[in-house]
Amino acid sequence: MLNFRPLLFILGLFLSMLTAFMLIPLLLAMSNGEETVGSFMLSALLTGISASLCLHNGQSKTINLNIRDMFLLTSLTWLIVSLFAAMPFTLYHGIGYTDAFFETMSGITTTGSTVLSGLDTMDHSILIWRSLLQWLGGIGFIVMAVAILPFLNVGGMRLFRTESSDWSDKAVPRTQSMAKYLFLVYITLTSICCVAYHLAGMTWFQAVNHAMTTLSTGGYSTSDSSMAAFSNSAHWVGIVFMAAGGLPLLMFVHSIQQRDVRIWNDAQVKGFLFFLTIVSCSIGFWLWQTRDIALLDALRLSSFNVVSVVTTTGYGLTDYGAWGAFSNIAFLFLMFVGSCSGSTSGGIKIFRFQIAGAIMREQLKQQCHPNGIFRERYNNRIISEDIVRSLITFVLLFMMVIVALSVILVLTGLDPMTSFTGAITAVTNVGPGLGPIIGPVGNFSTLPDVAKWALALGMLLGRLEILTVAVLFHPSFWKY
C-alpha cells in the first residue's frame, strides 16, 4: 500500500528548499532594481504556501517508505519541483508556460536545451535562477544515483549499492551523512571552478553562473554564444571541470575521508578518462589534418566538444555539425555514451558499456567451451543475472523511448534530423542536437508546443533512468 502522507511531507520539504533558493534571485533582483522582483516574490510566496500545506497534511510520527513509495516519490519530486520552479519564467516578460516549463525541466534535469535568447542583456536574476536550477538538479541526481537507484536496481545500478543504498531505519543516518559530504565536495568543486573561470577572464557573475552549470554538467550560459564568448583558457577550465562533473562524486568523498586515491582505480573512471582522451585526440588530429586549424586549437576544440557531449553538459563552442560527415556520425554516437554512475551526467553511462563488453566476452568463451562455467566480474563484483536483465531492459526501453519520441516530433512537422537528434539529446540530457535548428548554435524556441512538451517528458525520463518512471505505468504497481 502506498504511503501518501510521508510522500506529501517529503514533497513539502523539497518545496520548502525550492522556496529558500528562490530568495537568492529575488535579493539579486532587488539589489539591481530589476523588473523580476514581483515575479520571484510571487513565485516564492505560492511555493512556500504549497510547501506549508504539504508539510501540515503530511505530518506523521514515522516515515517508512517501501520500494513502491520510492519509485513514486522519485518521479513526483522532479515533476512537481519543475512545475513550481517554472513560475518565475512564466511571470517574466510574458513567457508562455510551455516555454517556461521546457526551460525549467531542461535546467533541473541538467539537459541544457534552451528556448531563451538575448541572454547577454537578460536580467541577472533570471540568469542566476537558470544556473541554480541546474546546480540543484546536479546534486539532486547525485544523491538519487548513490542512495536510491542502486536500491531500486535501476538499469543494473545494484553494482553500486552501498550501505547508504539501504532504506531501512538504521540506514537513514548514514544516508544523511553521505548527502552532507556529497554536498560539501560538490560546493567545494564549484567554488574552485568559479575561481578558475574568473582567473581565465570571466567576471565574477559569469564565473559563478558557469561554475554551477559546469559542475552540474548542465550547460546553461550567460551568453547566446555560450562558451564561444570567452577566452581559450576558459575553455580549458571548462574541459577539466566538465570531466570532474562526469566522475562519481562519492569517489571524491571516499578519497578525502580515507586519504587515498582509490577513485583512479575504479573501472568506470579509468574507462571514462581513457575514452575521453582517445576520442578527443582522434578528432583533434583529424581536424588538424583536414581543416586549416593549428594543432593546439584543434585539440582544444575537439576536447571541449567531446567532453561537453560525453558528460552531457552541452555547452556550445562551435558548430561541430559543420565539420563534415565523420564529425556528425561521431558526435551522434557520443550523445549516447554518458560518463560515470554517481556523477551529474546523463546518457547510458560508461559502466553499462563495460558490462556489455564483459557479457560479450563471457558469451564468446561459452561458445568456444560449451561445458565451461564462466562468471565475469566488474570492479571485483560478479555480474549477476538480475543485473544483466536490468541492464538489457534499460537499454531496450532507452531505445524505444527515443524511437517513440522521434515519431512524435516528426508528426509535429519537424524534419527527420531535428526529430531524431532532438529525441536523443532529450533522453540523454545532452542539450543541443544536430542540424541548423537545434544544433550547437541553434535554439529550441521555434519548435511547436507539442514538441516542447514531448521533449520535456523525454528529459525527465532520461534523467530518472527510464525504468523509474516506466514502472509507474505498469498495472501491477497500483495493485494493493
TrEMBL record:
Subcellular location: Cell inner membrane; Cell membrane
Annotated Pfam families: TrkH
Record's keyword terms, sorted: Cell inner membrane, Cell membrane, Ion transport, Membrane, Potassium, Potassium transport, Transmembrane, Transmembrane helix, Transport
Family from the record: Belongs to the TrkH potassium transport family.
Record keyword Phosphoprotein present: no
Main localisation: membrane
Annotated protein name in UniProt: Trk system potassium uptake protein
Organism: Shewanella glacialipiscicola
Function statement: Low-affinity potassium transport system. Interacts with Trk system potassium uptake protein TrkA.
Source organism, top-level taxon: Bacteria
Regions crossing the membrane: 7-28, 40-58, 70-95, 132-160, 181-200, 233-252, 272-289, 329-351, 387-411, 453-473
Membrane topology: Multi-pass membrane protein
